[in-house]
Specification:
The protein is of the alpha/beta class and 454 residues long. The chain folds into 3 domains: 64 residues, Winged helix-like DNA-binding domain superfamily/Winged helix DNA-binding domain (Arc Repressor Mutant, subunit A), CATH 1.10.10; 105 residues, Aspartate Aminotransferase, domain 1 (Alpha-Beta Complex), CATH 3.90.1150; 231 residues, Aspartate Aminotransferase, domain 2. It has 14 helices and 17 strands. The chain has an 8-stranded mixed beta sheet, sandwiched between helices. Strands 13-14-17-16 form a 4-stranded antiparallel beta sheet. A 3-stranded antiparallel beta sheet has the order 1-3-2. Helix 9 links the parallel strand 10 and strand 11. The protein is elongated, with a radius of gyration of 33 Å. The termini are far apart. 40% of the residues are buried.
Amino acid sequence: MQSSLPLTIDRAAGLPLHLQLAEQFRAAVLDGRLQAGHRLPSTRDLARELGVSRSVMQAAYDQLHAEGWIEGRTGAGTFVTDVVPLQPAVRRRTQHLPDADAKLLTLRPGIPYIAPTPDPGWRRAWREVSTQSPPGGYDDAAGLPALRAALADHVARVRGIACGPENVLVTNGTVHGLRLLLTVTRQPGDRIAIEDPGYLNAVVAARDHRLEIVDVPVDEDGLQVDALTEAAAVYVTPSHQYPLGGRLPVARRNELVRWARRTGSLLIEDDYDSEFRYDVAPLPALAQLDLERVVHLGTLSKTLSPALRLGWLVASEAMVDQLATFRADSGDWPGWPMQAAMLAMLRDGYLDQAVRRGRRLYADRRTHTCAVLSPYGTVVGQDAGLHITLLLPDDADDLKIAAAAREAGVVVAPLSEYRRTVPGPPGLVIGYATPSTSDLHRALTILTEILSRR
């Protein structure tokens, strides 16, 4: 049935009658058939016109009044409101453009080779996790106790750090551990010394915490300890200076620890890719020398995958307790499935296997990369890690070379990106781990063509 208003009744529809009427009324207001200020018939008259009970019509009016579509005026009747209520915003789907770098060959440093199909050790770890029930409550904020024990054994064996589970905190990776450490132990305005050139994410973390950054020069052996000035903390990459690749000699390590003891400074050791060494023996970790003065950061991002977002922090028991207390309040720690998988990989020996396999693969790639690029500059940092640095002549523009390489389909990092205030030669930081062997050869061919035209 139809009324003097643009309203009809469909008794076959599944929607209750009063909601049908309210919906039609809204539509009539929105499309202009009913204007603001229009006087509406009484509920009795509309009920008679539509052939429904007055209670149905009253329920429709009550709904519209509650939503602000109509208003009653004493002694005058019911009217369409002057201001139409704001309608919910229409959700518009954002067009997500594909990653511009996805189709490019990448020589970016710091990312390991990930095989296209998972190997048996990887699958075993996740099968083991799938057979376990998750914890009944929240995990230990410092990490799964069994994983902390396994990590303590691991770093003692491969890095010579004498520690127990009480010295280990599980993290979401190096940067996560660094940010947690800065949050808990540093105050805005504190001075932190960072290598220059150095790891950009460490610089960003320090700036985010409003610390005063002191740029410290590096040479072919890493951080120049004699250039250090007063600082509450020092961030250092002693096993393979990032990005130049120097390995801090034992004498400098001892000197750095003595300096920290003398000044009361905290040493933050980023041990990001120490597992990969070529024809050289491992040097002792700084944390091996003094666990009270040094916080050691480790990660799986260079051995297994950055997508795992897992790592560890080794420090004094008091420091770990302090960090864990903060995390218990903030709820910021890795999830149980990832920790359980990491534990399975350690117990099964899968992590050790992956490192040995990676050393063989990366050693060959490193040799090839150095041979191809050495005619174009000076190769440094080739003794360890997943990248080398090609130092270019002083008149070269590494930013333009990197831009030309990208245009030709290859992503490479200019050394200038890592410099802040300490001057030095231009260069390219070449990661040889990420692409397949054939893609690495293609990328280097393209890069050398660009270098030869410089």
